[in-house]
Amino acid sequence: MVSFSKSLIATAVATSSLVVINSSAVVSARIESEQYPIMLYTEKLDQQRITNLIIGSSFEFQTHFTKIFTISSLFGFESKDEEIHRFLEGNPQLLNYVIESKKVLNAIFDNAVLNLRLSVDPDEGTQTLFIVINYNETDSSQKLERFDEEWFLDKLPACAGKLNFQLA
Questions:
Q1: How far is residue 33's CA from residue 15's CA, in Å, rounded to a whole number?
Q2: Domain map of the chain by residue range?
Q3: 147: nearest Cα among 161, 167, 162, 129
Q4: What pLDDT is recorded for position 80?
Q5: Dihedral angle of Cα 161, 162, 164, 168, to the nearest 10 degrees
Q6: Which of 61, 80, 84, 148 might form a disulfide with 56, Cβ 3.0–4.6 angstroms?
Q7: Max CA-CA distance within the chain?
Q8: pLDDT digit string (tens) for 37-95?
């Protein structure tokens, strides 16, 4: 993953493109006439997946890619970033909630460090993305309850068990 300064993110997102090489996909951005890889799908892609990604180069893909790129710049990762990207790609309904939660969590938890962790239920095999809140103050449980009441409980049905929040 390549890091960009915030002033270049808008340019990167606006001019992103998809390139397929040897059954792997590289999403790249052109910034000031230089081509930079942003996301590399390291797993081998079958023909259907390549087709889906190419078709996905439409506006919908650009919008989802933009949001995933934004999430990558807002949060740390406790799980492999490509696993989280793949999960978010498969659950686009979560993208806005993850981005919006950052602002709400920062306001309640005084800019605590926030990381993403992908967890798999061993019994059911279902995946859940956890936003892990690294905040070691005595009032952390009360703040998490406040976050739930003020923001998350309203979003819970739409998240369908795929997004949750946890104190570190």
A1: 11
A2: 1-74, 75-168
A3: 167
A4: 86
A5: 130
A6: 61
A7: 53
A8: 444 444 444 555 544 544 444 445 457 777 888 888 889 999 888 899 889 989 999 99
* Half-sphere CA count of 121, side-chain side, radius 13 A: 9
Sheet (strand 16-21) strand order: 16-21, 24-31, 34-41
Fold (CATH) for 75-168: GMP Synthetase; Chain A, domain 3 (3.30.300)
Return the higher-pLDDT residue of 103 and 30: 103
Strands (DSSP E) found in 22-102 = 24-31, 34-41, 76-77
The tokens describing 110, both together, are: 């005084």
Give the model's pLDDT for residue 148: 96
Beta-bridge partner residues of 113: 134
CA distance 105 to 48: 38
- End-to-end CA separation in angstroms for the chain: 25
Question: What's the CA angle centered on 79, arms 74 and 84, to 5 degrees?
Answer: 65
Token digits of residue 6: 């915030």
**Tokens 């602002």 sit at which residue?**
103
Tens of pLDDT, residues 149-168:
999 999 999 998 999 999 99
Say what the pLDDT of residue 9 is: 37
pTM over 0.85: no
CA atoms of 65 and 59, how far apart (whole Å): 10
